[in-house]
Amino acid sequence: MQVKQFNAGLYDANSYLVNGRVLIDTGINTSALLAEIEKNIGIKELELIILTHCHFDHSAAALEIAEKSGARIAIHKDDAALLKDNDANASNAFGYKNFDLEPDMLLEEGEKIPIGSDEILELIHTPGHTPGGICLYESTSKSLFSGDTVFPNGSIGRTDFKGGNRLMITESIKKLVQLDVQTLYPGHGMATSDNVNEQIEQSLKMSRSILL
Q1: Distance of alpha carbon 108 from alpha carbon 90, whole angstroms
Q2: At what angle do helices 62-69 and 30-38 cross, to 10 degrees?
Q3: What does the alpha-carbon distance between residue 90 and residue 135 come to, in Å, rounded to a whole number?
Q4: Domains and CATH numbers, the chain
C-alpha cells in the first residue's frame, strides 16, 4: 500500500493519499492540498474522498477537491447530517459560517472499500469524538487510519464537542486494541510504526482514566 501524508496548514488535519486513488480527509487549505496531490497524481485520477468524521478541519476542502477531480465523497451515515450543523462540525469554532457539504456515499460499520492492488480498507465505526467517527484498517499492511479516535503516544480524541461522548470513545478504542496494527496514520501528528499496539493500549487506559 502506498500512502502519502499531507498537512496543508496550521489548523488542518492530516490528509492521506492512498494508492493514488483514495484521499482520506482533506483539511481546510484547498489550494495547498491540491498542489500536494498534483505532485503525485493527476487530479482526475482521484476516485474517492473518505472523511473520518464531520469536523471542519477534516472536511472543509472536500467539496472543491471533489468538483475538480470528479471523486465521490463518503462519510459514515451518523455524521452525514452533522456536515450541515455548524456547531457539530466545529466550523463555528474556526470562524466559518454556513458550511454545508452533501456526501455522495453513506458508510456503515464493516464496509470493505477496495483501494487497488487487492487491498481493502475495512471500516470500523468508532463513535465518541463524533457520532459517526470511523477508523479504516488495511489488513495486509496492518495499517490503521485512526481519524481523531486515537493518536500516537496514547492520546485520544476530545469528547467535549457537540456529539462527543466519553463512554463511547472508550468502547470504540476497545475495538481498536483487538487489531494487529503495524502503522498508525492519525488525524493529527505524524504517522508511527513504533510499537503501535502498545500505543493504542495506552489510549484505552487514558480513556478509561477519564471516566473515573
Answers
A1: 23
A2: 40
A3: 20
A4: 3-211 (3.60.15.10)
Q: 61, exposed or middle or buried, with CB in 10 Å at 0-12, 13-18, 19+?
A: buried
pTM over 0.85? The answer is yes
Kindly give the confidence (pLDDT) of every residue in the chain, 212 residues in length, as a single tens digit, with 9 standing for 90 and above: 999 999 977 778 999 999 999 999 999 999 999 999 999 999 999 999 999 999 999 999 999 999 999 999 999 999 999 999 988 998 887 777 666 789 999 999 999 999 988 899 999 999 999 999 999 999 999 999 999 999 999 999 999 999 999 999 999 999 999 999 999 999 999 999 999 999 999 999 999 998 76
| 128's grid cell | 465518541
User: Which 3 state secondary structure label does DSSP give 93?
Assistant: helix
Query: The cell 465505526 sits on which residue?
Result: 125
